[in-house]
Structures are given as structure tokens and as C-alpha cells.
Amino acid sequence: MMALENIVIQQGAFRLEDINLHVPTGAYAVLMGKTGCGKTTLLELFCGLRKAASGNVILRGEDVTRLPPGARSIGYVPQDHVLFPRMTVAEQLGFAPKIQKWKKEDIRQRVAELSERLGIQHLLDRTPQFLSGGESQRVALGRALAVRPSILCLDEPLSALDEDTHDDLMNLLKSLQESEDLTLFHITHSRREADRLATQRIELTDGTLQSEETHHVD
Q1: 81 within a domain of the structure (yes/no)
Q2: Could you please report the per-residue DSSP string of 155-204?
């Protein structure tokens, strides 16, 4: 479960207030709205990358408002992927487990598991400059999922992909939701993505959130 309670955000002339949102456990929530309306700001509140002037952030029933990002058990894929330029794909996937001091064998197994699930076994020795856009996105997803977070936040993850790759990645996201037992929070401008993926559609318009459950056909 993810929730924002009575959130107020002030950034210069930009302000959001009285923001309340509830995303049930296991939902695929898609947030839409015009550029500059505050979508990424809300996502960053969940991740701990931005602080609210007031209000509370709730994850899995726990108030995490004051917890740092690393203590929130959230996977995060930013819009531009931000892969480490000198690391191989295998090193990217193993980075977070290594930071958390997993055993080497456990890291190896997790890298193997993720690379198979993401279809990137053949890329493990490559560095980012030798990856396509779709391949980079798969690596970014794997890196975000490496330490088995229960929540995955995605900021326009499919916006720069060609149509075929876009469809492949949408299918992959639905598959990952099931195989990794995830609650997803996904920002997009694409109605097609929302129609295909969302079990909860959220609109941010003029500082107001409107949320509805959806029943799309796969």
C-alpha cells in the first residue's frame, strides 16, 4: 500500500496542497497530467527524494515521511535511466545487493535470475554505450528490482522507445508485476500505456488528484 496524506508542497511559485492518494497493495497505478503539473514531485515524495512542507507519506502501512530513500524499500527508474557509465550490465544489476552486503553467491544468483527474466543474459558484459534504448530500460528495471523491493516507481519509462520496443516493455512490466509481486506507480503522458497497464488511473489536474479503478482487457 502507498498513500499520501494531507500533503502540501511549496517550490517557489509552485504549490500543491491537500493532496491525498491511496494506492492498494498489488495495484498498477498510472499517474497522468500535463507537463509541469507536479507528477514527478509526487513520485519523488514516495521515494524520499523530495520533502513536503507538511503531510505524511505511508508505505506498507508505515509512516516513512522522515525515512531516507535507502530505508524505504522502493525501486526507482528515473526518466533518463541514469545507468553507471563504466559498469557492465552485470555490475549494474549487482550494485544495490553489493551495497547492502549480500553474499557474493547470492548476488550472482540474483543477477542470473534478473537477467533471464529481463531477457538480457547476452548483455551482461556490455557497458551502457553499447546498449539500445530498450536494452538500457531493461537494465534500469533490473537494477531497480535487484534487492527485491515491494514497490516500483517509474517516471515515464517508455517515452523514448519505438513502437515495437514499447509494446515489448509494456508486456515485460506486467510480467514483472506478477513475478516480483510488485505494487507499481507509473508516470506517463501515454493514454495507450494507461489503457494497457493501469488497474488504477490517477489524473493530476490544476492541483487536484482524481483516481479511479480501471478494468482493462489484456
Answers
A1: yes
A2: ESTTTTS-HHHHHHHHHHHHHHHHHTT-EEEEE-S-HHHHHHH-SEEEEE
